[in-house]
Each structure stands twice: as structure tokens, then as C-alpha cells.
Design a protein that fits this description.
heterodimer; A: alpha/beta; D-Maltodextrin-Binding Protein, domain 2; five-stranded mixed sheet; three-stranded parallel sheet; 8 helices; B: 242 residues; mainly alpha; MetI-like fold; 80% helix
Chain lengths: 292, 242
């Protein structure tokens, strides 16, 4: 009941924003923000500053960082990997050149810290939720995501084929992910799930068999099993939740730049470019069996 | 005043002091806090015993015991010097990675081992200070009564030394209580980790406040108890002097 009311309020709030934003866009001189760089609300004038975590992991980010680079595992500035490619596509649509884009290291906890943000937007597999949207502003969806579970081959959990069968095992997720909420609210295991501050810590625990199963979003699961846990396998993906789960870019609450980014995303969806980027970087993701 | 009149205050107020979030998250954090209590209670027992042993080893005299003394010094220097979270990370992920038979994989177990290793180094120094503060005449008197060196330590020196260092011991105990939050790094859901989970789900930091209050609720009574112990000891010494 309380939740429904909350949702209704958020929807109403979103509707109000929707009504007020077009006049703001026209005030900037045109119906679209495309090419109107000097009207944008940016951290550094004329440059697009994007935040993400370090290390940045495939398939969200790709490319090999140079030895002198501060980035590890992947290089967000390469334009390779799904999120990097989406970020550059959005930047180009607005009118930035590739070398007008700066990337800043933003651990997950910093993405929603109060106060002035060091980035224009943060792109780091952050799921939208109404509660989170009270503190920061989310862009519209750039990826609709499913959760999945990774286990060690040959362990008892590897022969489970249902969500109910997972309940007696020690499960884990990364801090701040909706994977944790999925475990607690949907799987409801008998022992308390573990929560790791970083992807690498969770992966190490899985390798050590300190946990039986690691719940991550499906594209990450493909990377974990392909690279990080050689003996790992994707047990399956979980059915899409009602209303779905999606990733959005995170903005300082009320930053008008979000209108521009949403225009860019809408255009990329319409022209099929977003789909092409997804096929290029997340192609393998389709094949995991669905657990019920 | 300076804080509440700051331009960002309304934002800070709503993200750090939201009472709805506070009461929503409190039951879960309280439940998780029980793990912190379990960790520091178990760890403290081993720390007090091992640290005393280490302090005694370091106080042994004569060239025969040089290797023992040297080892004790190396141990203390090393574990006082290395950040606790590194010891926790190396043991918590490293030891189970060996995949030896019979080696526990429980992160709570290894978290406790790491805290015991680090705090034994601190607490042994406290004990040693206590032992060295006992006047040499006490030892001389004991030895003249034909007590052996071991008996002198056990019946004369250590009882006086321990009594003197109870306040610093409790001080380290409070430090230990707070450092149990570091075990969360291994994935154990203790109070701080739980508050991070709640904070990241809602992007609201108020759950941190709930966790902080739980820690304070334990450490403040302990601090007052320490004060009371010191005052009582002082009263007794003054009474004896009269």
C-alpha cells in the first residue's frame, strides 16, 4: 500500500518534470539540444565529464589501458565496451568530439554522495529505483537488464535448476547492486547472503568456494565465467521482474543536462544505433537458460 | 550554526538524517550488529591471553632467550605496522585460497584470526608497559623469598602490572570493537556492511547514522566503566596509604 503510494507519487513527480522540461529546451533556443554545447550545464565548460568505477570491467568497458593509464583492466577512453560506446555515442550526438570527453574515477558510493558532483553523469551499471531517484536524477534506460547466477562447476549447486533449489546455498552479491535485493526479496535463501564491496572480492570468494553462488547481472556473468573464474559457469538467468530493471546514467539531482542525454538516447534508439552497440558488445548475452 | 546555515545543509539533512530511513534500516542493522559483538567478544579472549604470553616472552632475560625476544619484537613491529584491513584481506581471501583440507573457509573465522593477530601486538605492548612499571624492588623482594623467576612473574609482577594497565586495555578493546567493521570487507554482513547495503539501495546515508549509534551505545558505557575502575583503584591506593 505504502509502496504503491510512493510509486504513484514518483510517477506524478516525473510527469511534472515532463511538463516543465520542453519550455526549458525552447528557452535554450531550439527544440533539441543537439549542437548547443554552450547552453548545457557542465562541470567543465565545453567538455563532457563522465564518471565510472576503476577497474572498469568488460563487457561494459573494453580496450587495454596503456601502462601509464590510471585505468585498470579496461580503458573507458577507448570507446570500446558497451557503456563506453554508449557514452561516446551520446556525446557525439550532442556535438562533442571524442577528445572533448573526460573520464573521472567515481567509486559507486561517490556516485550518489551529496554535494556538487565531479561528473556530468556517471555510467556504471547503476539500476534505476524510485528511492534512488529521490536523491539523484536518472537518464532513461540505456540497457534493460536481467540478473543471473554464477557457480563453480562440479559443486552441488551446479545441478540446481530452479530458484527454490537455490535457497539452501550461500549466495553473494556486490555492494549496491540490485542483485543483492534480488537474493533477499526473490530467492530468500536460508542463510544470510554475503556482500562484497568490489567485484574482485566477490569473485575471489567464489573461487575460494567461500560462497556457493554469485548473483550478478547477466553480461557481467559472462565476463566472470570467461575470464575471472575459469571453473565457473552461468547456472542461469532469472526471469525479468515485473516492470523490468534498467540501467540509467546518474546525474546531480535536477541537472538539466539529463534532458539532452535523454534526447540523445531516444534518437539512438530510434535509429537503431543503440541496438547495434548492444549487439556488438553484449552479443553473447542471449544464451543463458532461464531459472524458474 | 555554521553547519545548519551552510548552503548544502538541506541536502545533507535529508541524506544523513532522515528518520524514516533510520527506523526502516535499524532492525536489520541491529541484527547485523550481533555479528560485530560476536567477533569482538571471541577475539578479545584470545587477544588478552596471547598478548600476555607475548609480553612475558619479551620480558625474559638472558642470552638464552634472545631468539624468543627477537621473534616477539619482530611480530609486534610487523603487526602494529601493517594496516588491519590488509591483514584481514590477505588472511580472509588468501588462506582459503590454499584449498587445504581442514582449513576453514569462513570469513568470520579469518576475520577474527586477523583481528587477534593485530590486536595481540598492540595489547602485548600495553602489558609490557605494565610489567616494566612494577618497581624492580618487587622482583628483588620476591626472589629473596626464594621464588623462581617464573613464580615471581606469575604471583608478584603480573597481578600488579595487569591492574595498572586495565584502562589502556579497555581502550584497545574499544578500538577492537570498532575494527570489527573491517571484517565486512570479506563479505560478512556486519553492521557497517549492512548499513552500506541499505544506503546504496536508497542512496541515503542515514543507515550509517544508525550503525554509528549502535557502536557508540556499546563503547560509551565501557568508557564510563573504565573511568569508574580507575577511580576505584585510586581510592583504594589512597586508603592504603593512610
Amino acid at each position: 500500500m505504502g509502496l504503491t503510494l510512493l510509486l504513484a507519487l514518483v510517477v506524478a513527480g516525473a510527469a511534472t518534470v515532463g511538463r516543465t522540461s520542453p519550455p526549458r529546451a525552447t528557452a535554450a533556443g531550439a527544440a533539441t539540444c543537439k549542437g548547443a554545447l554552450d547552453t548545457l550545464n557542465l562541470v567543465n565548460a565545453g567538455r563532457l565529464t563522465i564518471g565510472t568505477d576503476n577497474p572498469a570491467y568488460p563487457p561494459w568497458f573494453g580496450g587495454t589501458p596503456a601502462k601509464s593509464s590510471k585505468w585498470k583492466v579496461s580503458d573507458p577512453t577507448s570507446g570500446k565496451g558497451f557503456e563506453s560506446a554508449v557514452a561516446y555515442a551520446v556525446a557525439r550526438w550532442i556535438g562533442f568530439h571524442g577528445n572533448d570527453v573526460d573520464w573521472v574515477y567515481t567509486p559507486f558510493n561517490r556516485a550518489f554522495a551529496p554535494g556538487k558532483k565531479a561528473f556530468d553523469f556517471d555510467i556504471n551499471q547503476i539500476s534505476y529505483s524510485p528511492a534512488r531517484a529521490k536523491v539523484v536524477t536518472f537518464s532513461s534506460s540505456y540497457y534493460d537488464v536481467n540478473q543471473s547466477i554464477v557457480v563453480n562447476k562440479g559443486t552441488p549447486i551446479a545441478s540446481v535448476h530452479s530458484i527454490a533449489g537455490l535457497r539452501k546455498y550461500k549466495l553473494a552479491a556486490q555492494l549496491g547492486t540490485t542483485s543483492y535485493q534480488y537474493i533477499v526479496n526473490r530467492i530468500k535463501p536460508s542463510s544470510k547472503p554475503s556482500v562484497f564491496p568490489k567485484n574482485d572480492a566477490a569473485v575471489q570468494a567464489l573461487k575460494n568456494k567461500q560462497i556457493d553462488g554469485l548473483v550478478v547481472d547477466l553480461p557481467t556473468a559472462f565476463y566472470v565465467t570467461a575470464v575471472q573464474v575459469p571453473n565457473g559457469k552461468i547456472l542461469g538467468q532469472f526471469p525479468t521482474q515485473s516492470g523490468g530493471e534498467h540501467f540509467g546514467m546518474v546525474f546531480q539531482k535536477g541537472n538539466s543536462l539529463v534532458n539532452c542525454v535523454n534526447q540523445a538516447l531516444a534518437s539512438l534508439k530510434k535509429t537503431g544505433q543503440l541496438k547495434r552497440i548492444q549487439q556488438k558488445w553484449l552479443a553473447k548475452v542471449a544464451g543463458a537458460p532461464v531459472l524458474r | 550554526m555554521l553547519v545548519t546555515s551552510a548552503p548544502g545543509w538541506p541536502e545533507v539533512k535529508s541524506t544523513f538524517f532522515d528518520w524514516d530511513y533510520f527506523w526502516d534500516s535499524m532492525p536489520e542493522i541491529f541484527y547485523a550488529f550481533k555479528l560485530n559483538v560476536k567477533i569482538f567478544c571471541i577475539a578479545e579472549v584470545f587477544i588478552l591471553a596471547f598478548a600476555l604470553l607475548l609480553a612475558v616472552l619479551r620480558s625474559l632475560r638472558g642470552p638464552v632467550f634472545f631468539p624468543v625476544r627477537a621473534l616477539a619484537i619482530v611480530y609486534t613491529d610487523f603487526f602494529r605496522g601493517v594496516p588491519t584491513i590488509l591483514v584481514i584481506a590477505v588472511l580472509g581471501f588468501g588462506a582459503p585460497a590454499l584449498q587445504l583440507r581442514g582449513v576453514p573457509t569462513s570469513v568470520v573465522f579469518w576475520g577474527i584470526v586477523a583481528l587477534v593477530l593485530v590486536y595481540t601486538a598492540y595489547v602485548s605492548e600495553v602489558y609490557r608497559a605494565g610489567i616494566e612499571s612494577v618497581h624492580p624492588s618487587q622482583e628483588a623482594a620476591a626472589r629473596s623469598l626464594a621464588l623462581s623467576h617464573g613464580q615471581t612473574l606469575l604471583y608478584v609482577i603480573i597481578p600488579q602490572a595487569v591492574r595498572r594497565v586495565i584502562p589502556p586495555l579497555l581502550n584497545d578493546f574499544i578500538g577492537l570493537q570498532k575494527d570489527t567493521a573491517l571484517v565486512g570487507f570479506l563479505g560478512a554482513v556486519e553492521a557497517f556492511n549492512q548499513s552500506q547495503i541499505d544506503a546504496s539501495a536508497t542512496f541515503n546515508y542515514t543507515p550509517f547514522l544508525a550503525a554509528a549509534l549502535l557502536f557508540v551505545a556499546i563503547t560509551i558505557p565501557l568508557a564510563r566503566f573504565t573511568d569508574w575502575l580507575v577511580a576505584r583503584d585510586r581510592r583504594r591506593q589512597l586508603a592504603a596509604a593512610r
